[in-house]
Amino acid sequence: THRSKVTVIGSGNWGSVAAKLIASNTLRLRFFHDEVRMWVYEETLPSGEKLTDVINRTNENVKYLPGIKLGQNVVADPDLENAVRDSNMLVFVTPHQFVEGICKRLVRKIREDAEAISLVKGMEVKMEGPCMISTLISQQLGINCSVLMGANIANEIAVEKFSEATVGYRNNREVAERWVQLFYTPYFIVTAAQDVEGVELCGTLKNVVAIAAGFVDGLEMGNNTKAAIMRLGLREMKAFSKMLFPSVKDSTFFESCGVADLITTCLGGRNRKVAEAYARNGGKRSFDELEAEMLQGQKLQGVSTASEVYEVLSHRGWLELFPLFSTVHEICSGLLPPSAIVEYSEKLPRSF
Ligand code: NAD
Ligand code: 13P
Question: What is the spatial distance between Cα 275 and Cα 277, in angstroms, rounded to a whole number?
């Protein structure tokens, strides 16, 4: 058959919701194969059972998305090679630190006609400079990679509350349309923008601003301060994106992946939540410790992204142009106290 077959690579909080969205569409639309494979990073639950077995028995990811049926056509598979073997549509959705290792294992194991999309928010910094996750996937596997980012707190979409998302694509509109069809539902409105770098940088950089917003919450500084941090953060997101990729469009910041994702993450995200606890503890308990305790296996992206952004800024001599981004990293690494988040304002360049 010529039906497209989909594999979701990842099965965390958002990965599981992505599988649910996709599975409702592959059943409905004839040009997709009904079955959706979902690769699971295998683990043993306290009950002694394997997570994969429990997902396939109960149709729920009991650890990362409890209480939500994924759809009977979702098949969990702990074997990465087996999970991608027959698929031509690969959906990457793991924490960003694991993507490179996964890609290395997939070299020469995927179909030649495969296309990828990344839902991963983050970047890698190489000797040659910054590398977006979609570029990493593209380069390692020799395939095209689009992105999907948006104001998408997974637990809210899991219970089918209305939201929007943006597909970022490079040059093939038809490929983008196919990804839109795979994700689109009446409660999940997806639009396409021809600006892969812009869409992906929005999703990546807003996690750094969310850490700053969490500090403001932990210090109980109120809504005006938090709004100011969000505004300054958005300015830095735009400036950084355009300095790295001059092709990035202004309009992208007004899509769901831009200002909307920034707002939802600063109000209700995990990065915000753990950063609030960090500030409440006066920086005395590490992010790693708080993440393990508060998120039960889910992962933060903002702390490592702040460090990756800082590396880019210092290599290029741009640190003083990005006081918010650099201060977030200096607080996370213990060089400055959380209160420094609003003390950098005299360092702001005039253009801000
Ligand atoms: P998560 O935070 O729930 O992460 C846990 C996942 O990582 C689990 O599936 C776990 O098995 C897996 N894992 C742990 N160690 C691993 C290893 N060594 N190798 C491979 N996998 C390993 O994951 P998530 O919420 O699905 O997030 C994935 C990406 O999606 C992130 O970049 C995140 O920023 C982004 N995102 C998340 C949300 C959300 O609300 N959760 C929304 C939009 C985007
Ligand atoms: P957190 O990882 O901070 O929860 O953000 C989720 C997200 O990316 C919402 O779009």
Answer: 5
| DSSP string covering 69-109 | ---TTEEEES-HHHHHTT-SEEEE-S-GGGHHHHHHHHTTT
How is the beta sheet containing 74-77 ordered, strand by strand? 74-77, 32-39, 4-9, 89-92, 115-118, 145-150, 163-168, 188-193
Is this prediction's ipTM beyond 0.95? yes
What's the 349 CA to ligand 2 centre distance in angstroms?
29
Query: Using 50, 70 and 90 to split pLDDT, how confident is the model at 166?
Result: very high
Ligand 2 pocket by Cβ (under 6 Å):
121, 151-153, 207, 210, 261, 264-265, 269-271, 301
Query: How far apart are the C-alpha atoms of 228 and 212, rounded to whole Å?
Result: 11
User: Percent of the chain beyond pLDDT 90?
Assistant: 95
Query: What b/e string do you get for 256-275 counting C-beta neighbours within 10 Å, with b at 16 or more?
Result: bbbbbbbbbbbeebbbbbbb
d(CA 64, CA 251): 34
| Residue 344 vs residues 182, 205, 236, 249, 348: alpha-carbon distances, Å | 44, 19, 14, 28, 7
Radius of gyration for the alpha carbons in the chain, expressed in angstroms and rounded: 20
Pocket test for ligand 1, best of 8, 9, 11, 14 (most atoms within 8 A of CB): 14
206 is an active site residue? yes
Instruction: For residues 74 and 33, give the distance between their C-alpha atoms in angstroms, rounded to a whole number.
Output: 11
- What is the token pair recorded at 250? 């202004």
Report the pLDDT value the prediction gives residue 343, as an integer from 0 to 100. Answer: 86
Query: In sequence order, what E strands does the chain have?
Result: 4-9, 32-39, 74-77, 89-92, 115-118, 123-126, 129-132, 145-150, 163-168, 188-193
CB-based contact 59:105 (threshold 8 Å): no
Burial code of 4-22, b = ≥16 C-beta within 10 A, e = fewer?
Answer: bbbbbbbbbbbbbbbbbbb
Q: What spacing in Å lies between the alpha carbon of 352 and ligand 1's midpoint?
A: 34
Torsion sign, CA atoms 27, 33, 34, 40: negative
Say if CB 244 and CB 204 are below 8 A apart: no
pTM of the model: 0.97
For residue 8 the two structure tokens come to 């979701």
